[in-house]
Amino acid sequence: MFGMKKFLLLLFIICGLYGCCRKVPETSFEKEGVSFISPEGWKIVDERDIEDSGFYVSCQRKGFGSNGIFMVSWINGMMELDKYIRLYMKEFEKNVLMKAAYVQFGEPVDSVFIGIPCSMSSYQAKILGVKTRGEIYSFNCSGRTFMLVFQESVDESEKNKAGFEKIRTSFSCRSDKSVGI
Q1: First CA to last CA across the chain, in angstroms?
Q2: Full-model pTM
Q3: Which of 46, 58, 138, 146 is a plausible cystine mate for 71, CB 3.0–4.6 Å?
Q4: Residue ranges, the chain, pLDDT below 50
Q5: What contacts 177, CB < 8 A, 6 or more positions away?
């Protein structure tokens, strides 16, 4: 009986280590003409319809203590870009976790994301004691309004750099139903 307990404990530890150390393969996300690559070591962690008027998906870098996340949401139809960013800022501040964080948002400014004119805001926060920064992009594409968020701890920016770049360069919001942006 004692030998069986040791065996089961050892098996449990091996399975746990295998799960923690296993690399997450590169995968593609595709939905309604929107696509991006979730890089190796990153995992899509949430996908959901937004009340039949849009969609939300997020992926994050995996690993113990990792702190890199990419979120994209879109709503069907065109919305004023600064207004969409400000709406996100308000929702961000309502989040239980964010209420305890000291969040500083920059004013939205005109920018360009993968060749698409956009509105962009950056922010800094201290989330659960971790210095965090993020960038929010909002733009219109294929008859929809998009919001993209790249967030990371300040200490892990080098670890997230290649993953964020892969997501940025692979992101597409084209649709067969529309012409141009």
Answers
A1: 68
A2: 0.82
A3: 58
A4: 1, 4-12, 15-19, 176-181
A5: 33, 142, 143
